[in-house]
Amino acid sequence: MPELDSPQRQAPDSLMLTGFWYRALPADSVHRNQLHSAMLLEIPLVIGRDHAGLPFALRDACPHRGMPLHCGKFDGKNVECSYHGWTFNAHNGQCESIPSLTAGQNLRVDRIYAGSYPCEEQDGFIWVYIPDPGPPGAGFGAREEVPVPAPRIEKFGLSKKDKFKLAYLTANMPVSIDHGIIGLMDPAHGPFVHQAWWWRSRHSIHEKQKNFEPIPNGFRMSAHTPSSNSAPYKLLRLYAAADSITTTIDFVLPNLRTETIRAGRYWFSSLTTVTPITRNQCRIDVVAAWNIFHWLPFGPELLKFVFAKFVEQDRRTMELQAEGLKHNPHLMLIDDADRPAKWYFQLKAAHLEAKRTGGEMKHPMAGPVTLKWRS
Ligand code: FES
Ligand SMILES: [Fe+2]
Fold it and tell me: CB of 84 closer than 6 A to ligand 1?
């Protein structure tokens, strides 16, 4: 296992994993009959909603001469390129018409495709599936369907009358996906980066011990009473006995961090993703769902305020870190605080190795592990 040389010196195809769903844009920013541009894994995309509101994603380059398709027109069904007016079915990318063709010219228009990507709306975001790249130089054809749906947030005991709320936060980070992810799972920066007089000070640092276990494609911090410094926990204590509150935190490739907090019939669930935009840029999206705070007027706002503060502190830190990383310093990962980061790199390497050989993925963790650190 190489040291932390990996996040900077990896080739883009091992840095940014293909063959997964990624969050592309907040659903409320994508409007019917409009075209929006986005980027995932250095792939430019045009994203929109058809007349029925169903989202779609195409490669933002016309297969004729590369004009960005988001500059074209959209009638709710087909996208028309602004250069020579070729039109493409928004959902499958198939070419529908080429205005310059005369009656006798029998080019098979229906064999021409703009690149199209599986696209789903889930928990307030438009998700796009980025497949493994085809052979170099090959154009686009009809796309394959994805075997798995986009990830969703777990919601508990929901009957029709059970209400829950959903909110999201998003922030751009000027670092690679790897630095974004290991920054997210790093327990040791809390007392230094996330200080606030109403929250905690660096003097609240104390020894912690947490149990971890392997799960498919990732690892879990086993169910435990949350850290007294955790934001939702502080609010949940208003609703339930402190010792009835448990939390579980999972990390799963390529970029999914799920946190679930349960206290009796109350629950709070979040799915945080760190999405590779380019090799030097990622975006963090926190989406949370909960069934608490219905009668507490400031509950959701308070929670959003706390999360926004945390995310902004992380963003600012990574902006400064990016300065330091420009000159390719030697880096290290230490035990036990950086062990989750080591697992992340090992999981990624194991995933790529399994893909290369076509064999089963060999999970880097043999069984449950207890980690200790001070934070
Ligand atoms: S570049 Fe799009 S139609 Fe020619
Ligand atoms: Fe943080």
Answer: yes
Please, which residues bridge with residue 202 across strands? none
Interatomic CA distance for residues 243 and 233, integer angstroms:
11
The whole-angstrom separation of Cα 119 and Cα 22 is 10
Read off the pLDDT of residues 174-204 as tens digits, 9 standing for 90 and up. Answer: 999 999 999 999 999 988 998 766 566 667 7
Q: Which of 157, 125, 143, 144 is nearest to 287 (CA)?
A: 125
pLDDT digits (tens, 9 = 90+) for 197-236: 656 666 778 899 999 999 999 999 998 877 666 666 666 6
Query: Which residue puts its alpha carbon closest to atom 1 of ligand 1?
Result: 65
| Residues 59 and 73: beta-carbon distance below 8 Å | no
Q: Which residues pair with 289 in a beta bridge?
A: 166, 269
The b-or-e profile of 131-162 (16+ CB within 10 A means b, else e) is: eeeeeeeeebeebeebeeebbebeeeeeeeee
User: How buried is residue 264: exposed, middle or buried, by Cβ count under 10 Å (0-12/13-18/19+)?
Assistant: exposed
d(CA 332, CA 323): 17
Q: Report d(CA 109, CA 65) in Å as an integer.
A: 15
Asked whether the beta carbons of 143 and 131 are under 8 A apart, the reply is: yes
User: Would you say the CB of residue 73 lies under 6 angstroms from ligand 1?
Assistant: no
| Rounded Cα gap, residues 7 and 234, in angstroms | 34
What is residue 344's DSSP assignment?
H
pTM above 0.90, yes or no: yes
The burial class, CB within 10 Å (0-12 / 13-18 / 19+), for 323 is exposed
From the CB of 62, is ligand 1 less than 6 Å away? yes
